[in-house]
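User: Hey, my collaborator sent me this sequence without any context and asked if I could get a structure. I don't really work with proteins. Can you help?
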Amino acid sequence: MFLRVARHTDDLKKIEDFYVNVLGFELLGEFQNHNNYNGIFIGKSGLDWHFEFTQSTTKAKHIFDDDDVIVLYPKSIVDYNELIHKFESLNVSTITAANPFWNVNGKMIQDPDGYRIVISPLKAEISEIE
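Assistant: No problem. I've predicted the 3D structure and written it out in structure-token form, which is a compact way to encode the shape of the chain:
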């Protein structure tokens, strides 16, 4: 099974800059004027998932709450520390998570659309959380 997480935005350039230059993903592809939509695909080459962001003349209506998060797990503690240092050098602010688990086990940031992203240094197995 493959996974695509698709989301509408009002500013593809800001989203691309954030996910590629801040988080370190790759621009995998893009399209222009497909049924009045422009879009980009962002992820990592060779993986079975990616993000798709689209923009059109219709304004994005983002409806989410403080517990709607994307959780990303860097492959190593070195990668985690490098990413956190990168946030600091780029003045990307961390925010307090509603779920206290993420305040202890990671750092939360927001993308340009306001969606919350947790960067966690440890990848817990589902069975460990239950």
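In plain terms: Residues 77-89 form the longest helix (13 residues). You can pass these tokens on to your collaborator as they are.
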